[in-house]
Amino acid sequence: RILELMLQAGRLRGADYEFGRKMHTAAREAGFELISLDTYQLQFLQGKGKSFWSWTFTECAESLRAVGSLTAAEMDELVKGMKRADDDPGTLVGHPRIHQLVARKPA
Asked: Chain-wide mean pLDDT for the chain?
């Protein structure tokens, strides 16, 4: 449910959070020659980085509630669950995948 809501939040702001998987195709279609494509994903068991999702969701949840995507009760339940995961030293929290593409325009 959280992923669905976060993707919806991006769409409401005109962002495509899934573009990284399409980036190489868009570059080729624009006439670029691909040199390299890398993907990495940060993971946290502790520290500030572990609370990335709960912080991000808390920041955008009110906007999602305002457009009817979730109720206040559902928002509270989801935030509590995310904070439990943040506080659990055995729960690994992964950030979004980060895609990096290096390309050049043929001469």
From this structure: 90
pLDDT, mean of residues 86-101: 95
Look at residue 48 and tell me whether its pLDDT is greater than 80. Answer: yes
* Type of residue at 59: E
- In terms of Cβ atoms closer than 10 Å to its own Cβ (0-12, 13-18, 19+), residue 99 is middle
Strands 93-94, 33-40: pairing kind: unpaired
pTM for this entry: 0.70
What sign does the dihedral 74-77-81-82 (CA atoms) show? positive
Token readout for 81 is: 């669950």
Joined together, the tokens standing for residue 49 give 């980085």
Backbone angles phi, psi at 89, to 5 degrees: -65, -15
Q: Mean of the pLDDT values across residues 12-27? A: 90
CA–chain centroid gap for 93, Å, is: 12
**Residue 70 amino acid letter:** L
